[in-house]
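Marked as duplicate of an earlier ticket. Keeping the data here for the record.
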Amino acid sequence: MNFDDKLDRSTPCVIPATELLADALKPFLQGRSVTRFEPLPGGFVNVNLKFQLGDTPLVLRLSTKPRGEVEAEMAVMQRLAPDVPIPKILYSDLDHPVVGRHLLVLEFMDGQPLHQVEDAWERAQVEAFARELGATLAAIHRHELPQAGLLGPHLSIAVPFPKFGSALVAQMRVCLDAAEQKRGVTADEAARIRAFINQNAGLLEPIEQDRRIVHADFNQKNILVRPTARGCTVSAILDWEFACSGSPLLDFGNFFRFEDEMPAGYQPALVEGYRAAGGTLPDDWRRMAKFTDLVNQLQFLAETDRQSRTFATALRVIRRTLDA
């Protein structure tokens, strides 16, 4: 599976000069020198640069997102770190006055993105890995917060959702209206999508009170794997900037968004591993998960250019969801 032909970067990939970055990291480096920052592949929002400190590889993460969102991401990573393979945060400098971005130094996690390796696996390898990944997902979802909503610093709820399912449906409608106003979709297509939302809104009633930590961008580009003697194992779950408090179904909808391009055997094994590790799913979880992912696709239509790969991909996923 190739994400580069599906998505565009949402912000330009601008890398400051090495001297500027090294100077910004002086409090962390404490006299040690860095001569090179190497861009890491993947990532469509932030910039991730690998650098070497002696024999230790590290990652410098540059973000231009609002400070509160970066603080929320850091809080999620720190909360989940004992239970989930996540890079440790070794240093942070938010709102750096010279670089003009938020700086995070992270532990380097060895491995390859899942989408680069899974197509070569036999079914038995897929199933073994999927069971382990399901258990990892259950470990994330075990963490419950006081309320559903968008997160702020220290895992506070910056934007509360009294009813999570209803909030998703409301956001779908807002994004659809915006996409129609900018002529991203035709009036006929907008009417069809609107009718689909209205017909399926009741599906989400069982998740109205869900308030679990969810990754909200849980897909193959954010999952690192590394080989072992018995196959491959989960090396790390990356990029937590979209994490929120809500329903685990968001992560299932995201992961199986391109299910038709995934190797056979994923879904039953992942669900088996998830449930065996204590995760719970409603009976109609698959249809519900696909419906929750509609909010992401409609947001892409509302916020991206009609000529972009992201827009074309979102429209294709929406049409496939409506036709299913």
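See parent ticket for discussion. The chain has a mean pLDDT of 93.
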